[in-house]
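Lab notebook: predicted structure, single chain.

Context: the supervisor wants predicted structures on file for every construct in the current expression panel, including those that have not yet been purified. This is the next one on the list. No modifications to the sequence; it matches the entry in the shared construct table.
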Amino acid sequence: MGSECGPTVLLVHGFGCDQNLWRHVVEELRSEFRLMLIDLVGSGSSDPKAWNSTKYSSLAGYAADILEILDDLDLRDVVFVGHSVSAMIGVLASISDPSRFAKLVLLTPSPCYIDDDGYRGGFSASDIDELLESLEQNYLGWSQAMAPVIMGTPDRPDLQDELAETFCRTDPECARVFARTTFLSDNRTDLPQVSLPTLVIECAQDAIAPREVGAFVNTHIPGSRKVTLDAAGHCPHVSAPVDTAAAIAAFARLT
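Prediction complete. Output recorded below exactly as produced.
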């Protein structure tokens, strides 16, 4: 999809989402870049038979899938764009085989959602326990309640509704496993191992990954850059696609 001669940009969605949520960013990028979009196993239109709860109880399972796709297609110098938890999936994949990638773009990333000594992840351990318990007991209800918090656009209920609908299309059993994998992972010690040019894109206001998190990722990935979008919420590719695409494109063009 997109330009046949430009750099290859791989867009990977976050928890509860699917590739369709990138569509407005795709419209901005398609004339200049060769675009790839995937649905992570357990999400979107992925093959239900590929689901393995043991494999996907670790982000390493998703990272292995990314590398398998790039290997099967014999792709190198890929600009990996990962939203939310997929930012850390990209970090792990790039550490495992940096030869497949040219750059990383980490969109509203968080290496750890739970507060720790000297680290603000945005949630206490009890917050995460309650979130996971609510999700496991009533996934559809959780989806309707959390979508507005994650989207962060109370003036645009249509975006909240779209995110909630995307959550609700995800198989609840897969979502329960992926949620635990997402919210209980701690990838802080992986960040210094990233050897690729990296861009961190954060939002001015984000209830899921506050700005302290973006600063932490930027500080701990050697030589990384950070852009703060004048946007609210955790999904700027949906709520502010033009600005998000512009940040991705400017970084992808750098030589």
